[in-house]
Amino acid sequence: MSLLVSVGLRQWQLEALEGYWSEQPTDYLLSATPGAGKTTFALTLAEQLLMAKAINRVIVVVPTDHLRTQWADAAAARGLTLDPTLKNSDGPVRKTSSGYVTTYAQVASHPMLHRARTQNARSLVILDEVHHAGDGLSWGEAVSEAFQPAARRVCLTGTPFRTNPDERIPFVRYEEGSDGLLSLADYSYGYREALAEAVVRPVVFAAYSGTSRWMNSAGEVLSASLTDAGTKAAEEAAWRTALDPGGDWIAHVVAAADARLSDVRASGSPDAGALMLATDQGTARAYAKVVKRVTGHTPVVVVSDDPRSGKRIEAFTRSADRWIIAVKQVSEGVDIARLAVCVWACSFRTPLFFAQAIGRVVRARHPRETATVFLPAVRPLLALAASMEEERNHVVRLTSGGDDLDALAALERLESEPGLASVTPLGAEAEFAHLLHGGRAFVAGRDLTAEDEEFLGLPGLLTPEQTAALLATRDAELRRSRAAAQADEIEAVLDAIDGDPTWRDLDLLRREVHGLVGQWAGRTGRTPSQVHVEVRRAVPGPGSAKASWDVLAARRDWLLGKVG
Questions:
Q1: Which residues contact 352 (CB under 8 A, 6 or more apart)?
Q2: Is residue 241 located within the same domain as residue 275?
Q3: Are 31 and 155 in contact (CB under 8 A)?
Q4: Helix (H, G, I), strand (E, B), or coil: what is residue 176?
Q5: Of the candidates 354, 339, 205, which has an alpha carbon nearest to the alpha carbon of residue 275?
Q6: Which phi and psi (to 5°) does residue 535 adopt?
Q7: pLDDT of residue 322
Q8: Which of 41, 125, 380, 564 sees the fewest Cβ atoms within 10 Å?
Q9: Whole-prediction pTM
Q10: Do the strands 180-183 and 339-345 form a parallel or antiparallel pair, or are they unpaired?
Q11: Tens digits of per-residue pLDDT, 456-488?
């Protein structure tokens, strides 16, 4: 083991390398939190094994094409040549390189070719995000067949995982657990340890609630709060409605996130970026229009069916562009260290995806950095956010068919997408609920002091309580300005109504009432929910979702008298 290739390593990487060399196993599993430096560890080990002549070829297997380039660039920076362009049709490994980088999909399409490449030299095989070897039964079989002859194998994962007894991932050791087989790592380095050693940034979660209104398949107009929907079905429908690109919830949260991004940029990170996660490609493109309209900046959009997505990610990584919108393309492995803000605008809610996706914004560059994640205040996401620092084994489910990433994506989306029943979104307004940090919730209970204003939004300099107060203050200002603009637009439309109002007319009037409620709440320092109670006392009747035109009009007039 050479000291030269160990210079500049973090303490955990040195410990893991020392443990590897003391045992020198054929198969080794490293579990290290996203952003901790798994790539550096693996490439350092590869260099050491090459120098010790234990191997003379390195093969890296990754989930996506973009990661091929990322690994090759990281290797080149250390003087190691790994070919990221080698295709299955190219035949043997080129003599000008020390190895190559391929994808799980390529291995699955021609396992015997990769087996030949592996056994034609003493090979080290690095399986990055090894749980992808379980993205389909055929994938696991192909990986096992292709790399069984390897001299050494190193498996990397960003989080511990578990599988069913009949769904073992190749080259991973397991131990029996009460709920399946638990992966047994040779070295583990979790988020809690990385946070304590300032290897990663702390993450704060800005949870946004609000009331959603939708029409069900029976034509009934319903409404519910994201925070307290009452039933799981109502929560899912409210969640899906909030994520509607045509609604106000997304636009409001994008504006809040962009303001936070401006704070981060002004505080010493001028190239900081924001990531928006979408459920599907159509929604991602619709969100791009919202971001452009709200912020004035055109976002970069990366989707799986775009052959240029890898180049788009690479270009964004090196640029100072503000926003990138993605569907799983930036969920794991992709290293964009300048990402500091994330908007969780997708319906995925599995612990494995959550941990990997949040890992995109935790990579620390300098002290006093904090990442901010904006998300819907729904129970599944709040539970994941509250347990961010907990060590857990995530579920990896294998499927019987499908040889690409879309197979797992479809399975995960089907099981986790809210509102699978027919729901027609009618509208949703956003309201800052609370801040989650270190498993605790902080609400805005006081105004910002002059000292707070001096450090307005500087990441790492405000306490969680002060950050919550800052976000709440910004939220109130944003709601007031948006409500005033919308009220003018809606009033013009309502004045033009001739004849009996339609359901669309009713919805416009409801939106005006909600906008006025937001204005009055902002002026009085109360929440919109509290103002809604006051309005119903002044003008009795059912909630807005079921109120008649006359009741809604009376409430609008009462509110206009207040905010006049």
A1: 131, 159, 161, 394, 395, 396
A2: yes
A3: no
A4: strand
A5: 339
A6: -65, -40
A7: 96
A8: 564
A9: 0.65
A10: unpaired
A11: 343 444 455 555 555 666 566 655 665 555 555
**pLDDT mean over 119-132:** 93
Phi-psi region of 402 (alpha: psi -120 to 50; beta: other; left: phi over 0): left
CATH assignment at residue 101: 3.40.50.10810
Q: Which domain holds residue 483?
A: 479-563
Cα–Cα distance measured from residue 63 to residue 43, given in angstroms and rounded to the nearest whole number: 17
Structure tokens at 7: 């210079």
Reference 500, options 539, 549, 455; nearest CA is 549
CATH of the domain at 291: 3.40.50.300
Say if residue 209 is in the same domain as residue 183: no
Angle, CA 53 vertex, CA 48 and CA 54 arms, to 5°: 80
The backbone torsions φ and ψ at residue 375, rounded to the nearest 5 degrees and listed phi first, read -145, 160
Question: Distance (Å, rounded) from C-alpha 139 to C-alpha 510?
Answer: 52
Query: For the chain, what's the residue count?
Result: 564
- The pLDDT of residue 332 is above 70: no
Q: Is 101 helix (H, G, I), strand (E, B) or coil?
A: strand
Are 143 and 181 within one domain? yes
416 inside domain: yes
335 found inside a domain: yes
Enter the tokens of residue 381.
Answer: 């996401």
